[in-house]
Amino acid sequence: MPDTHLATAPGPNDAIRHSLATRFQKARGRTAELVAPLGVEDLMVQSLPEGAPVKWHLAHTTWFFETHVLMGADPGYRPFDPAFQQLFAALDDRFGAHLPAPTLRLLSRPTASEVMRYRDHVNGTVLHLLDRIDDAGLADLAERVELGLVHERRHQERLLSEIKHAFWCNPLRPAYEPLPPAAAQPETPQQWFDMPGGTAEIGRDETAPGRDHEGPRHQVLLRPYRLAGRPVTCGEYLAFIEDGGYAKPRYWLGDGWEAARAVDWQAPLYWERREGGWQIFTLYGVRPLDPAEPVCHVSWYEADAFARWAGKRLPEEAEWEAMACTKECLGNLLGNGHRHPRPHVCRGTDGPWQMFGDVWEWTRSPFMPYPGYRHPDDVDEALSGRFMANRIVVRGGSCVTPFDYATPTTRHFLRPQARTAFTGIRLAEDV
User: Fold this and answer.
1) SS3 category, 353
2) What's the pLDDT tens digit per position in 366-380?
3) Residue 124: CB partners within 8 Å, gap ≥ 6?
4) Which domains does the chain have, with CATH numbers?
5) Model-level pTM?
6) DSSP single-letter state for residue 128
């Protein structure tokens, strides 16, 4: 545990302190904003076996800052409530065996108001520590805060994904918030963009807290390929359904076919036939299917099957990144005011479009370490090396991904059967 350095006068790194404090307040405030539309009863709902109630997300992200920032950087800090150290840990057994996910839904106590007092206490203490620590201790504290910010952003997306599923399970199909106004858009033809192949560099130049799995930067050899200009739309995916795509095993990998049959997949998650047509459930409630918007909530198995049906394939993650590095236009991300994929974002700029935002895009790459990757010695909940098995890489971010988390090098990873995340499809083919 590092020594604590307490400042008695302003130092030369006040700009760093101010930046960290501003970003910390913004990230923590964003989580509070996401919870604001919910009632206290909503905070206790857990519909996914591997998920967690919103109240637990609020407490767990606070636990992370308390444990890794306050207790890690200030030996004199005492926990807000020692019992919270075990209650709100995840994959961390330093404070006793962590609670299994099904148990989380039973935590009616501490109450929501107690959890919010816990958040207020930790928020204020972190800001106070940023203000009083001297320059010698600032670098270590800054790294801990940065790790906490990455962790907070990930849970913001999980929180919205899980409350959407919980509301969908409710027979009333309640809306999380009112639908913002948006002009209807026609479905446009797909365009394709060629890449010559050859040697490319991918990955982060230097490591960053919580992003250990995105480096080191390294060279890859790419064959010439072509990438679709936009994600697959609901209209295009509907053609796959109507052609019997879910009934023809020739389009499916063996594991995918078994997964689809086991739970009777007939369409993406949240699609249903109602009143003579297809409707989808969104964070704005049930509404008619928009054929122009990107298809969302498909598993990797479904994405792969659609690509085979279309005579294409999913991109390698290196192909995706090599193309994304040349793009600056951000699509629909958390903070843009629309929590559902939108069509034609960034039109008018050079394509491909919507590579950042709207939907995470499945690749055909397994989540594995890059050449030269070294697992950090200080293993904690936000590090991703422990998940490098049985996951597939998704790229680009979604409509509920914080905008400062979606970059060309961002690697997210999901199980191939996962459908609750905002996942979609961008096609590729060999040239």
Assistant:
1) coil
2) 999 999 998 877 655
3) none
4) 14-169 (1.20.120), 192-430 (3.90.1580.10)
5) 0.93
6) H
